[in-house]
Amino acid sequence: MKVNGTPTRTIWRAEDGAGVEIIDQTKLPHAFVTTRLETLDDAARAIKDMLVRGAPLIGATAAYGMALAMRADSSDEALTAAHDQLYATRPTAVNLRWALADMKRVLSPLSPSQRENAAWLRAAELCDEDVAINEAIGDHGLDLFGEAWEKKGKTGTLNALTHCNAGWLATVDWGTALAPIYKAHDAGLPVHVWVDETRPRSQGASLTAWELNQHGVPHTVIVDNVGGHLMQHGMVDLCIVGTDRTTAAGDVCNKIGTYLKALAAHDNGVPFYVALPSPTIDWSIKDGLKDIPIEERSGEEVSVITGRTESGEVVSVTITPEGSPCGNWGFDVTPARYVTALVTERGVCRATEEGLKSLFPDVAGN
Ligand code: MRU
Predict the structure, then answer these.
(1) Model-level pTM greater than 0.95?
(2) Active site residue: 244, 251, 282, 332, which one?
(3) What's the complex ipTM?
(4) Is 55 annotated as a binding residue?
């Protein structure tokens, strides 16, 4: 995607080959800042402190983190330690486990002297694959937007609602849930996006809105509790969100609050689509409520909000009384029965074990 007209990815190897460049997403939307990762610790901190976030980008950063680790020490011990350190950064997005397992599979059989080069190559490949996967999700999702537009009689505006940020900032490029939105907009469909603010970290208000602005997609930021009201009044034609982990039976774990939107969509007959790259499927589990670890983060993310003053200064303020504890669960699980369909790089399927297996017979259960 483009930033101020310049094609940009969210992560790339630095020109001197000795580091990795990322967009520091904690600075958006107030400033577009790139930062350099030079060590394994830098990569682990970037994931943990959410300079990078979004399931696919967490995986890509971990892959590059392994390359940075191999640059410093390519022994067997260092390989295992790097894997374990990166794996411990965030618990919910399964892409992290997937990318680290892939890197370990490629690097383990090699001699230490071969590992650094192989790690850079494989990390770059994983990034390119992510871009291709997301673009394909965009193409398949575009068909659903086309259907919704037909159903609407091709009049007015096609209103999509999304939660959190599942755009290009959450991936290497294109995004998952936003890829079909970009494709639909570029194809001339009159798409308008309701952007859930997505407290506590406000990924919708600060990242999704920023992305859509950059691409010129009409949108409106709403607070998290508005979606149900809009759906009751026919103001949402479809919902589309991303996922951090999808079970083999189609349960979907995504940013906290996704479940409530799915319930509202179900009650109002609004299609609820989930867009996902196949590395987000955890084939080893079926019951999302029981088997997916839900990240709990600091209560400070709830009590303190950051914003820009009229003079452009970025400041943080506390909004809760002193002494009130805050709870901060990062994700929730939407049971498959509330998901109208899953949009993957291989096509659209029902959110069931059979549906996923029909698209991924070669991977399911392996
Ligand atoms: O906590 P975050 O910002 O990493 O959460 C991101 C999400 O919940 C996204 O919706 C999800 O990773 C899918 S992104 C393609």
Answers:
(1) yes
(2) 244
(3) 0.99
(4) yes
